[in-house]
Amino acid sequence: MAVTALQAGKRLAQRSGWTLSNLALQKILYLAHMVHLGRYRTPLIAELFEAWDNGPVVPSLYHQAKAFGASAVQNVFNGVSGPDEGSSEAKVLDEALERLGHVSPAQLVAMTQREGGAWASSYEPGRDGRQIPREAVLQEYRSRFSG
After folding, report:
1. Helical ranges in 1-147 per DSSP H
2. Displacement of CA 100 from its chain's centroid (Å)
């Protein structure tokens, strides 16, 4: 069952030792969402990502963490529980953090703005708020990892 972006964001931030920026949280979450969708055919998070200038963003998580700017997001997740231990959501988030937690913000942006990918097909310069369809994310997963 999908979790909220805040639940997923809290797990990533907490498991990183509170070292991830808002941008890093967004991009790692997007890639984890893509993998979960591809592996399990169900979304990792309930919300849809939007195609913003700096890549895919979940507005609820962005607004929760935006006060930190480019600095590491601290615990702004009071009252938010994480995904259940042992769930597919927790496993994919942990795997994504392990693989991507030390990747630079610029590399994460490049990874999520792949030409022909879901973000690129939804993005219109200067028009934040365009939703990225889950089917497009699944198609990107298939083109990147099934082949």
Report:
1. 5-15, 22-40, 59-65, 88-100, 105-112, 118-122, 134-145
2. 11
- How many other β-carbons are positioned within 10 Å of the β-carbon of residue 22? 25
Q: Which pTM was predicted?
A: 0.95
Structure confidence at residue 82 as a pLDDT band (50, 70, 90): confident
Indicate if the alpha-carbon torsion angle 56, 104, 34, 141 is positive or negative.
Answer: positive
DSSP assigned state of 117:
S
Q: How far apart are CA 137 and CA 47, in angstroms?
A: 13
User: Has residue 22 got a pLDDT over 60?
Assistant: yes
**Where in the chain are the domains?**
5-145
- Band (127; pLDDT cuts 50, 70, 90): confident
Mean pLDDT in the chain? 95
State how far the Cα of 37 lies from the Cα of 60, in Å rounded to an integer.
20
